[in-house]
Design a protein that fits this description.
The protein has 57 residues and is mainly alpha-helical. It has one helix spanning 27-56.
């Protein structure tokens, strides 16, 4: 019997100890995600302060 009977093209064998590019997120995506999180929190803090000040007046 040949090895081709057990071959699955969707899950190829990988050598142990090697890391592929697929496991890491691109650096640009990480930076953009961090920037969006910071900007989102700044906007949320501004709205919170805005409504807090407006609610007291």
């Amino acid at each position: 019997m040949s090895d081709s009977a057990d071959y699955d093209p969707l899950t190829p064998r990988r050598q142990k100890g090697t890391d592929t590019q697929e496991r890491k997120m691109p650096r640009g995506v990480v930076i953009r995600l961090f920037a969006y999180l910071v900007a989102g929190h700044v906007v949320a803090a501004f709205l919170y302060v805005l409504f807090t000040v407006a609610g007291k007046g």
